[in-house]
Structures are given as C-alpha cells and as structure tokens.
Specification:
Number of strands: 24
Helix content: under 10%
Order of helices and strands: HHEEEEEEEEEEEEEEEEEEEEEEEE
Structural class: mainly beta
Largest sheet: 8 strands, antiparallel, barrel
Length: 361
C-alpha cells in the first residue's frame, strides 16, 4: 500500500512541481518512423527481405533512415489500412490513397530494415501510365501510379510490415502508411476464373475534357485506299463512277489477343498490309492477299484486386532487375466481354483522357 501511495505522489509531482516559472517554445515533432503493426507470428527478417525484393521504378537507399514527414508535404489517407496477401515469387501491388498535394513518387521500406527505396516515376516517363485523377481527393502529379514489388522465390517467415509515404517535386514528404502483409506459399493465390482464357481486341472509345464519345470505334483496319464496286452476275468489279458499294481496296489490319492464366498474361499481336483480290472475290464474299508487317508477343504477371476492380499487368526487363507495369480499371467482366479503362494525363495540360478497350471471346 505504501508503494502505491509513493507512485501516485511521484506522478502528481511530475505534473505539479516545477523549479521556477519560465516561458518557452514548444516544438511539435512528427514521428514518421513510428508504426503500429499488427502482432507478427513467424516474422520475416526485414533486412533479408529488403535485400531480395525488386521495386518498380525504385532505387535502393542503403543504411539510411526513412525520410521524415514535412508539414507541407503531400497528404495520403493514413487511416487507410489493408491486410495484403502475396505469394512467394509473385508481386505485391499497392494503390496509394492520395488525398492532396503533388505526388512525384514514393518512399518505401520494409519496416525494421536498415535501407529503403525511392520510387521515381519521372524515370519511367513515356513507358508507363502517366498521372491521372483517382477516386481519392484532389492530388496531382503521378497520383494514378501503383507501387509494385517483386517478391523473392523463397521467403523465410510469413508476416511482415512495410511503410510507404508520398513525396513531391521539392522532396516534401507525407505521413507514412503502414501495410500489413501475409506471405503465402507458391500455388495458393486466388484467381478470378472469369478472367481466364484468351480475349480478342474488338474496339475502343474515349472520354476527355469537354467530349464524351459513347460510340465504340473499330480501329483494327486502317484504310489507305477506298474504291467503288459493282456486282455483275455475282462477280465483283471495280467502278470508276460512284456506287452504293464502297470497299477498302488497300489497308492495314491488326489483331491483338490477350490471354490470362492463374498468375500470368500474354499478349500476341500481328499486323499485315491487305489488298482486295478481285479475281477470287464475289458479291457476297471478299478475298484478300496479305503481306505480313510484324508479329509481336509479350508475357508477364498479373495482379487483380476484385474489391476495387483493378488489374495490373507487370513485365520484367531481361536482367529481371527492372519492372514496368500498367494498371487498368475493369469496367465490365462477363463471360464474353472484358472492358478495360486506362487513364492518361496530358503532360502539357490539365486534361485527363480515359480510354476504354473492349475485348471479346
């Protein structure tokens, strides 16, 4: 009991006792490196993990303290907390909730590591989805960007925390967000079966400042020469006079196919110059000759978040040390139709353009 009274007396003295009256300035310090992680069982070693990851458009800053927040830095929603799951060898994808300020990039750190990463989107200009307004706030700059982290093939432990904060062109830094991550063994990732299979590109439409094009346009055929034709005894014949039948005599055709599997995607595209073959054409069936122009393919990995209908397609450089990616909003996903929306911000103005691409199967 005496011990109890002694403790109470000490606490009262701390608040009430003072040697002399003085006036002073109180400086408020932002403790940006303090995070509140959930309890971790079988925690991943932060330095081991930090040394094994690759961060898209990110460079490692070794043996350094995570940058302190600035009073006038960008603002991100620090109340936004999500529990992420990532499979060994796959990608952790984060969509930062920016509220205001100008975003030039992000700082990212595996919580507890002695190094961090600086993500600089200006290095990727022309190679990635440029800035565009997202659902959050009135932020500007590269606010439509995504944080993409390639995980090592083998990870010891199954839980870790990471911190990220936005910075602007003057290197003013926001308060950080702490994300909690669970590591899953390979082969255990969930996948939306509706995405699986091969989709064929069909058409597009676009939206922008002052215009709204609701009509789907087909751009798989570029017409270079248009001519008039007549139909004589079932045979197609060219006409020097204007007729009701106008066809593309010479043009360029393109095809694009998008295939999704459990973790990956592949894109195959080809193009050819096409000429109408009058000898083998009829009034009801047209025949063409083709001169191939190109045949290209691309492969990579995907991350699909069904809760916000966001699809990210990620590809790696030949050295596996660089990542590039593009994110789409999934507007429609049915058994036979997939519509992807891509936001692009004009670098020379404040105009944001949205392009929607329709795929069918």
């Amino acid at each position: 009991m005496k011990l109890h009274y002694l403790i109470v007396a000490l606490v009262i003295c701390l608040f009430a006792c003072k040697k002399e009256d003085k006036t002073g300035t109180v400086t408020e310090t932002v403790h940006d490196t303090i995070y509140n992680p959930i309890p971790i069982n079988n925690a991943v070693d932060p330095d081991d993990l930090s040394g094994g990851i690759t961060v898209g458009y990110g460079s490692r800053v070794a043996d350094a303290t995570f940058p302190a927040a600035s009073a006038d830095g960008p603002v991100i929603d620090t109340s936004y907390h999500r529990l992420y799951k990532v499979v060994e060898g796959n990608y952790l994808v984060i969509y930062p909730p920016n509220l205001s300020g100008n975003v030039a990039g992000y700082y990212l750190q595996i919580a507890g590591a002695t190094s961090y990463f600086k993500i600089d989107y200006t290095k990727a200009k022309g190679l990635r989805n440029t800035a565009g307004a997202r659902n959050y706030g009135n932020a500007t700059g590269y606010v439509d960007s995504t944080i993409v982290i390639k995980m090592p093939i083998e990870i010891t432990g199954n839980r870790f925390n990471l911190m990220y904060a936005a910075y602007d062109s003057q290197n003013r830094v926001s308060l950080p967000i702490t994300a909690n991550v669970t590591v899953l063994p390979q082969g255990s990732a969930a996948f939306n079966d509706s995405l699986s299979g091969t989709w064929s590109y069909a058409s597009f439409r676009s939206y922008g400042d002052g215009y709204n094009n609701e009509v789907w346009a087909q751009d798989t055929l570029k017409s270079y020469s248009q001519k008039y034709y007549t139909c004589n005894n079932g045979q197609l014949a060219e006409s020097s006079a204007k007729t009701e039948l106008s066809l593309t005599y010479y043009g360029f055709v393109e095809h694009r196919y998008l295939t999704f599997s459990r973790y990956n995607y592949s894109i195959k595209s080809n193009g050819a110059y096409r000429t109408l073959d009058l000898v083998n054409s009829s009034c009801t069936s047209y025949s063409y000759t083709y001169i191939p122009s190109y045949d290209a393919s691309e492969t990579g990995s995907i991350s699909y978040d069904p809760s916000i209908h966001r699809l990210t397609m990620i590809s790696e450089g030949s050295s596996n040390a660089t990542l590039s990616y593009i994110s789409y909003d999934v507007i429609s996903l049915t058994a036979h139709q997939l519509i992807l929306a891509y936001n692009r911000y004009d670098d020379n103005s404040d105009v944001q353009n949205t392009y929607q691409y329709e795929y069918t199967k």
